[in-house]
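Researcher: Let's do a round of design. I'm pasting the structure tokens now; please hold your answer until I've finished.
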């Protein structure tokens, strides 16, 4: 029975794979955040979210990845969402705009953002429309993200 549980449990990843094939880890004050990858048929996958970050007592921060949604995101969004989810863990914030802001600051610091990447992210967010609460209209949400990140330069 234990072997079966291990086979159906979400895979734990030690590092995130960026769209260019390189890897990154989410370093927090408690150590490296754990990552779990959930395939499309996994009912425990974060429903409706590419990623979901939460704190697990005793083990620290964990990022659960919905591999179906992650793999279908454009490359720039695929990479940005890592920084967004990691920002939740690094800062402990539950606020989505704050995670976006810190995520963009961190993405810039890692050399993975810049004019071209951010233009593609802006175009992606222009197409998204209404994202539901607490996000609102994606275009405005992204504009707030950029404004916040620019204030933190």
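Researcher: That's everything. Go ahead.
Model: Designed sequence:
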């Amino acid at each position: 029975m234990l072997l079966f549980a291990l086979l159906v449990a979400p895979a734990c990843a030690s590092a995130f794979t960026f769209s260019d094939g390189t890897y990154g880890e989410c370093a927090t004050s408690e150590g490296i955040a754990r990552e779990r990858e959930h395939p499309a048929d996994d009912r425990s996958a974060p429903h409706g979210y590419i990623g979901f970050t939460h704190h697990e007592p005793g083990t620290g921060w964990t990022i659960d990845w919905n591999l179906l949604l992650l793999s279908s995101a454009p490359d720039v969004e695929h990479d940005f969402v890592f920084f967004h989810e990691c920002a939740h863990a690094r800062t402990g914030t539950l606020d989505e705009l704050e995670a976006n802001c810190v995520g963009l600051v961190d993405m810039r610091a890692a050399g993975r953002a810049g004019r071209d990447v951010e233009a593609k992210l802006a175009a992606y967010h222009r197409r998204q429309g209404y994202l539901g609460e607490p996000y609102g209209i994606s275009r405005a949400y992204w504009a707030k993200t950029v404004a916040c990140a620019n204030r933190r330069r």
